[in-house]
Design goal:
InterPro entries: WD40/YVTN_repeat-like_dom_sf (IPR015943), Xyloglucanase_GH74 (IPR052025). GO terms for molecular function: hydrolase activity. 0% of the residues lie in helices and 37% in strands. The protein is mostly beta strands and 465 residues long. Strand 37 and strand 38 (451-453) form a beta hairpin. It is globular and about 70 Å long.
């Protein structure tokens, strides 16, 4: 066609980042160097992999040239922290989850990467490395969300990723959401299986194949843990081993109204007792727990507002979300100082030094998930308008005369919630129309800051027309 780009040279064009980082995006994985807590990795379900070496003062994208940009798991080799493993494909179950192409390995702290296989997994839920032998790695392959088959279950390598063995396979519809290793005995493993499938018209979020499996012989054989746990209609499960006493294992279990709840084992998963009926608000989106490294009874649960229990799961309360975005997905707890936390949520990365009373936002990771982009006719430089997943609608300049370039201060919020499409008045770029979820519509005036809700409503009018 006449407007085709096929015959136009685009070699002279180069993309440049304009932001914003004033808000973050969905963070699904965090891995902190055990020997140097100022160095850590941030994995996003849609925004790739980032690294800081200075406690988050700056972050660098380190995975841009690879074959996937959705991250489900990150693990650092505890005996050689230059070795980093990354599982691609987001580990959640919402309608739109981006798939990956297997597991990657870096041997130089993220400078170079190699795809090590399990490419048909599409989504990786977890990775653990044997602290006694770096060549032994276990991977939880979640499998495709919308297709049966592929790589599912627990995979093991004994040669650093050159070859893999599928040591736990359940079925073509059931993969593994998590894999855990007893910190004292690397032969003891726990795998969390989840039976799931999404189609355009429906979603299956559980079944009898979901459950907790345990191995005591490094994955050669597995037993399904059933004593005290729900057995039939079981959904997504999050599991945590207490670092204080690894005989204590916790599980948050999606199940029937009667059986769902928070469970505890004091004998390495052999038997379980229900502590409460609490589960996360949306198990398909949250449902991960993190045991405190100092207090055996303290456990955190990611949720719309992060929850915490101080009595082994009997009672729960909000951990603290002052000046913090909602919808948490991951939590790192400093092994030597349990007041120090790093949380990953829909709004990016937050750090606390007072056990979640106050949070510091890392306003330098531009990973907002953008649904729609619009531009206006402003001069001399046009403005860019975006709607983002759970991070509002914003506008920012395409260029600036500032020698410092475009900064977070140049971006302006035009509407809250999940931002979608924005349109701007053709003649007056100060008048903006911004959509949000459920058909919400506002008219925003840049000059005055007025935000007027103008969504049309159909009233009960039965008059003849």
């Amino acid at each position: 066609s006449a407007d085709s780009l096929k015959n136009i040279s685009l070699n002279g064009l180069k993309f440049r980042g304009i932001g914003p980082a004033v808000t973050g995006g969905r963070v699904t994985a965090i891995a902190v160097n055990p020997n140097n807590h100022s160095e850590y990795y941030i994995g996003s379900g849609h925004g790739n992999l980032w690294k800081t070496v200075n406690s988050g003062i700056t972050f660098s994208p380190i995975f841009d040239n690879q074959g996937a940009y959705s991250i489900g798991a990150v693990a650092i080799d505890p005996t050689n922290t230059n070795v980093v493993w990354v599982g691609t494909g987001e580990n959640n179950n919402q309608n739109n989850v981006i798939y990956g192409n297997g597991v990657y390995k870096s041997e130089d702290g993220g400078k170079h990467w190699k795809n090590m296989g399990i490419k048909n997994s599409e989504h990786i839920g977890g990775i653990v490395i044997d602290p006694n032998n770096s060549n032994i790695v276990y991977v939880a392959a979640y499998g495709s969300l919308r297709n049966k088959g592929g790589d599912r279950g627990i995979f093991k390598t004994t040669d650093g990723g050159k070859t893999w063995e599928n040591i736990l396979y359940i079925s073509e519809y059931t993969g593994c959401f998590e894999v855990h290793m007893d910190p004292r005995f690397s032969n003891i493993l726990y795998a969390v299986a989840h039976q799931r499938m999404r189609k355009l018209y429906t979603g299956v979020s559980g079944g009898p194949e979901s459950g907790i499996y345990r191995s005591t012989d490094s994955g050669k054989t597995w037993d399904k843990m059933t004593n005290g746990l729900p057995k039939e209609d079981v959904g997504r499960i999050g599991l945590a081993i207490s670092p204080v006493n690894p005989d204590v294992v916790y599980a948050i279990v999606e199940a029937t109204k009667k059986d769902k709840g928070f469970y505890k084992s004091t004998d390495r998963g052999v038997s379980w007792s229900k502590q409460s009926s609490y589960i996360s608000s949306y198990p398909f989106y949250f449902q991960k727990i993190f045991a405190d490294p100092i207090d055996v009874d303290k456990v955190y649960s990611v949720d719309v507002f992060m929850q915490v229990t101080n009595d082994g799961g009997k009672t729960w309360k909000r951990a603290g979300s002052k000046n913090k975005h909602v919808d948490d997905h991951y939590l790192w707890i400093d092994p030597g100082n349990n007041k120090h936390l790093i949380a990953g949520c829909d709004g990016g990365v937050y750090e606390s030094y007072d056990q979640a009373k106050n949070w510091n936002f890392k306003a330098n990771i531009p990973i907002a998930e953008i649904y729609k982009i619009t531009v206006d006719n402003a001069k001399p430089f046009y403005n860019v308008y975006i709607g983002t997943q759970d991070n509002n609608s914003l506008t920012g300049p395409s260029r600036t005369i500032s020698s410092g370039g475009i900064t977070n201060q140049d971006w302006l919020f035009t509407n809250g919630g999940d931002g979608f499409e924005t349109q701007v008045d053709w003649k007056d770029p100060n008048i903006i129309y911004a959509l949000s979820q459920n058909g919400g519509l506002v008219r925003f005036d840049k000059r005055s800051g007025e935000n007027l809700f103008i969504k049309p409503y159909e009233f009960a009018d039965t008059a003849y027309r």
